[in-house]
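Feature request, filed as a ticket because there's no other form

It would be nice if the structure record came with a short human-readable summary line next to the tokens. Right now we just get the raw output. Example of a typical job, pasted below so the devs can see what we mean:
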Amino acid sequence: MGAIAVETLMAALYTNHALHMAFMSDPHPILDRYDLTEDERASLLLTDKPGLVLAGNSFAYKRWKANQWRHKKAYTFAAPNAERIESVEDIALVQQRCSEERYRGG
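Raw output as currently delivered:
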């Protein structure tokens, strides 16, 4: 069960900023929340903290970039000849088109 706990903790450290900050300042209370062996705890206490920050930032950027792509695709299908949505008026047009009957499945 320890490997699952380690993976769960690492995923949380990469994605949860508050948990990450708490771990960086004092990892012991965070480690107490997980079902870890003594070897796993010792290994996690020796975690490369700059590497943890770098990995967390990298994953956050990848999530942000993926969401930008998704949003662009969602707007592009509805905006006429749109490569990019650049103004409030463009977004209003997208909202209007999405509310039309043909986009609601009717």
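Something like this underneath would help us a lot:
The mean pLDDT is 78.
The first helix runs from residue 2 to 15.
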